[in-house]
Amino acid sequence: MAVLDETQMREGVDRETVETVQSMAGTYKHGWETEIEMDFAPKGLNEDIVRLISEKNNEPEWLLEWRLDAYRRWLTMESPDWAMLNIPEIDYQEQYYYAKPKSMVEKPKSLDEVDPKLLETYAKLGIPLKEQMLLAGVEGAEEGRKVAVDAVFDSVSVGTTFKKELAEAGVIFCSISEAVQDHPELVKRYLGSVVPQNDNYFAALNSAVFSDGSFVYIPAGVKCPMELSTYFRINAENTGQFERTLIVAEKGSHVSYLEGCTAPKRDTNQLHAAVVEIVVLEDAEVKYSTVQNWFPGDENGKGGIYNFVTKRADCREDRAKVMWTQVETGSAITWKYPSCILRGDDTQGEFYSIAIANNWQQADTGTKMVHLGKNSRSRIVSKGISAGHAQNTYRGLVSMHPKAKDSRNYTQCDSLLIGDKCGAHTVPYIEVRNASSRVEHEATTSKVDDDQLFYCRQRGMDEEEAVALVVNGFCKEVLQELPMEFAMEAQALVAISLEGSVG
Amino acid sequence: MLEINNLHAELEEDSGVKILKGLSLTIKPGEVHAIMGPNGSGKSTLSYVLSGRDGYEVTEGSATLEGVDLLEMEPEERAAAGLFLAFQYPVEIPGVGNMTFLRTAVNAQRKARGEEELSAGEFLKVVRAKAKELQIDAEMLKRPVNVGFSGGEKKRNEILQMAMLEPKMCILDETDSGLDVDAMKLVSDGVNALRDAGRSFLVITHYQRLLNHIQPDVVHIMSEGRIIKTGGPELALEVEENGYADLMAEAQA
Q1: How many domains does chain B contain in total?
Q2: Which range has the worst mean pLDDT, A261-265, A284-288, A342-346?
Q3: Where is the ABC transporter domain (chain B) (predicted)?
Q4: From the list A458, A460, A473, which residue is nearest B95 (CB)?
Q5: What local confidence, expressed as pLDDT, does residue A123 receive?
Q6: Which domain holds residue B184?
Q7: Do B80 and A3 touch (CB under 8 A)?
Q8: What is the pTM of this model?
Q9: Among A385, A447, A457, which would you mutate to test the B interface (most chain B Cβ atoms within 10 Å of its Cβ)?
Q10: What are the extents of the domains in chain A?
Q11: Is A236 helix (H, G, I), strand (E, B) or coil?
């Protein structure tokens, strides 16, 4: 009995996919824009813009200096060119670095005061900003689950839900601009401690101009009572989004965090350069899941988001554990390597990834597992799917330092090709500098098999349903690591992003 | 039920390689027909052409299911119209649970026919009952489609799919290949349980032994893309004793 009931649960999820796909006959479904009056900073980037952003956020002097320092370093740096990406030259003076809905100039005191147009935007995206139970949507799930949401619209956080309930548990979940005001000591202590200002070109840019993002602090011994999530939406035209997220998990704490992203369809490219820093202390555990669905550009490769993201977790103390799960289906260009610094002994880092590139999308994504502590473990499972004219690269570093004795890594990279004009590449970097550690790497490349598709179609599925089923099967090991709500969205996305890739 | 008239088909690649050369066949509702023939006579090609697999071109002739032209339809439309092919080599689909696959297939067909989809509960109830008859346990329903299945498990799984989809016209392509005696009995019992006045079968096989379990009404001998002889079950026994050589010589004479 128990076995079959479990089957039924998964069953519900998979079926949901198929239904969702059928209900969304179109392509990118978040391509609409919200008409709303915005307050922009002048176009272009210089020290005055950095000062202006800092002033708009009413920041303390130290943070302004920190930003200016980052800006000056950025000026001396060059855009990285080692990825297998063809990145058109970006004119940084043609962008807006700050855009805020006018209604947000006087910060609303509660969600009730937020501009209804903004609330509508999120409702349309299916993001609950009202404090309500989120139904898991799975047959057999009797209880709804609570998910706290921080919604970021262009440069600012619109509001955060369930703050009170979280505060009772001692959890701080707010926008980073609020955290700077209300918890400056925490921000000052941890900001830039995982990803320094000059870490790389895009991290330096972000450090200079980041406008908002989420801040999470889980006190020692606390298991966060609900999932936390941030939803990023780029709306304004020619506006870069530079959010910065900082998560601190104190000793023995536990949190699961979700991140989702969408943007309107436009025929110009838009820039997104985010930084996520996670500090994990002794025995703490952080699970970070992303469903990235920025506008990927149209079928001719016009428009789309350039997604240059630096994400890193520092397992600073013993037995700290971090798990990255990402589903990357959007963006014209993805440059992203969520990493784990396994500093403490017996620390654990995991990275599960699905990267889909269709039409003219380019993705160069993977992870870095840096083993510094003894007996540290890491696991990488990457599923890359290429269709159309897309190029999809897995790039990953596994580094075993001399002191990381008896450490282990297991890497599995699978690539799936649909059609004959796309490419899949696997670029592993492995450095082992002690004799007792072990690194395993397995890689496969396969094509969606005509026999599989015919088999599905003979049983009554149409071609797109068949491809969705086969590809979701290919991704299963990663999909099952996602929280339930995300797993369904992700399965649907997998199918939608591959529409038109066969036949 | 199934009416095939002067069917000619060739491979799309290697053009000019003709495989079916004027095959005609009529199967009435409720009848079980067997096709026997030596290797390379075109038996499997016939099943692929009828089910709409890519790679074959029909150059002449027709095939209809209950009067509807099969050859004009997409494979999934043929399936929804009631055509089922039990594969000689069932395909593995890693990561896709057997149950998920079955339910997606059942509901895709129901939807195509404008029927209401089965709820999770109803579906589960039906699957459990039918799986039990074929000695398919819960574990096997959970596993990915055909991955790591033994030969016998794969064939039982095909019959389970057939039982769930309730087709009108079932083609069994060498369902006996790779089966031991016990598995053959199990599979045959499954097929016999589905025999019904409204359902017809076309059983493709090399050997007479399967026909001991699934008793045919009509037996056809196929050679070089055509039916060369048609008879009752005794024809299969004749082949078993004397081989195909005599029949082929007779046909050429």
Answers
A1: 1
A2: A261-265
A3: 2-249
A4: A473
A5: 65
A6: 2-252
A7: no
A8: 0.82
A9: A457
A10: 36-353+360-373+396-409
A11: coil
CA distance A147 to chain B (A): 26
- Look at residue A5 in the predicted model and tell me its pLDDT: 34
> Between A and B, how many CB-CB pairs are < 8 A?
118
Q: What residues in A contact B108, CB-CB < 8 Å?
A: 18, 459-462, 465
The closest CB to that of A458, out of B85, B99, B112, belongs to B85
The 10s digit of each residue's pLDDT in A165-196 is: 888 999 999 889 999 999 999 999 999 999 99
CATH number of the domain to which B208 belongs:
3.40.50.300
Which alpha helices (H) appear in A191-227, and where do they start and end?
201-209
8 Å CB contact of A455 and B87: yes
| ipTM score for this prediction | 0.95
Cβ contacts (< 8 Å) between B112 and chain A: which residues?
Answer: 460
Neighbours of A13 (CB within 10 A): 20
User: HEC states along chain B?
Assistant: CEEEEEEEEEECCCCCCEEEEEEEEEECCCCEEEEECCCCCCHHHHHHHHHCCCCEEEEEEEEEECCEECCCCCHHHHHHCCEEEECCCCCCEEEEEHHHHHHHHHHHHHHHCCCCCCCHHHHHHHHHHHHHHCCCCHHHHHCEECCCCCHHHHHHHHHHHHHHHCCCEEEEECCCCCCCHHHHHHHHHHHHHHCECCEEEEEEECCCHHHHHCCCCEEEEEECCEEEEEECHHHHHHHHHHCCHHHHHHHHC
C-alpha distance from B56 to closest chain A C-alpha (Å):
13
For residue A321, the distance in angstroms to the closest alpha carbon of chain B comes to: 27
